[in-house]
Amino acid sequence: MTKTKLVLVSLMVAATMLVSATVSVAAPIVIKFSHVVAENTPKGQMANKFRDLIAERLDGKVVVEVFPNSQLFGDNKVLEAMLLGDVQLAAPSVSKFEKYTDSLQIFDLPFLFKDMAAVEKFQQGPVGQKMLMSMKKKGLIGLGYLHNGMKQLSASDPLRVPADAAGKKFRIMTSDVLAAQFEAVDALPLKKPFSEVFTLLQTRAIDGQENTWSNIYSKKFFEVQPYITESNHGVLDYLVITSTEFWMDLPDDIRTEVKKALDEAIAFGNQISEKKAIEDRQKIIDSGRSEIIELADAQRQQWVDAMKPVWKKFEDKIGKEYIDAAVASN
Ligand code: LMR
């Protein structure tokens, strides 16, 4: 090879290396967002909004892929998958973190928050903000709270007073507080993933479950549950979560933009959650498939009296000062 040819070949090799280096630097960061609910729910809408905002603002730099309906991971697997780096964002119900932290169990205490405004006030206060970081050492960071709404009780038989629930099997999320709540009315709680609830109800393997109007409607639970007691006995809220490793590895400017888009998407989800609850409740009534039982004050008081002792049982684990702060937000 002549000297000139050698120089030319070397230049070409260098150019190829430069191009491939540029290509690999330019490859977008992929954020897989896995969740278990339908798209037409506050969480489904929030996730899609986040994806769209990122596409508008960080086109080519970051791509968000949303996987609804437990398509990628069910709620029993998603946190482990996040720690392994197989998924970057999720928003499980706050009831699904008991393996990682005790403090979030506060949200499962029955009849603690009087409405979603109280939940919001508590979350934005010092205790709620501190809880976002309660799992940092275990590799998970809370990026914000997302609302769904108050939970109702659905069942194959009418539930008017606690004695009606005695001996019945209820699906619950993976929370010992929720187990204690059903045990307090002599019912039998079963921890099962969300993706299994419809079949369990349809086949009558269980008698009932607790959930929000939007989940009862979008997952068609009302088609296989002839009664829904409007108990508003607890809250279903979500923690938008990522892994500490993924979050800290993001370039600063990208992390700032991603957080901004996420905050906006959460605000959007929270804004529609109340409206969705009203709309989906009405759609269930219009379907004629399920009777909605409104409790008289004395009946509701019976549920409160039966379930509230659960607070005392978990006081040491959760922290009395946390419970006091939640009560003060009402
Ligand atoms: C449930 O498992 O019942 C809910 O947490 C599902 C969800 O994410 O809304």
Describe the structure.
The termini are far apart. 46% of the residues lie in helices and 19% in strands. The chain is globular. It has a single domain, classed as Bacterial extracellular solute-binding protein, family 7 (D-Maltodextrin-Binding Protein, domain 2). The chain has a 6-stranded mixed sheet with strand order 6-5-7-4-8-9, with helices on both faces. The chain has 330 residues and is an alpha/beta fold. The protein is built from 13 helices and 9 strands. The structure holds (2S)-2-hydroxybutanedioic acid. The site of (2S)-2-hydroxybutanedioic acid has 10 residues, from loops.
Number of domains: 1
Q: Which ligands accompany this protein?
A: (2S)-2-hydroxybutanedioic acid
Which structural class best describes the helix and strand composition?
alpha/beta
Strand order of the largest sheet: 6-5-7-4-8-9
Give me the count of strands.
9
Q: pLDDT below 50 for ≥5 consecutive residues: which ranges?
A: none
Mean pLDDT over all positions: 94
Largest sheet: 6 strands, mixed
Q: Strand content of the residues, in percent?
A: 15-25%
Helix % is 40-55%
Q: CATH fold name, please?
A: D-Maltodextrin-Binding Protein, domain 2
Q: What's the CATH architecture name?
A: 3-Layer(aba) Sandwich
User: From the alpha-carbon coordinates, what is the Rg to the nearest angstrom?
Assistant: 24 Å
Separation of termini?
84 Å
* CATH class membership: Alpha Beta
CATH superfamily: Bacterial extracellular solute-binding protein, family 7
Shape: globular
Number of helices: 13
The run of helices and strands is: HEHEHEHHEEHEHEHEHHEHHH
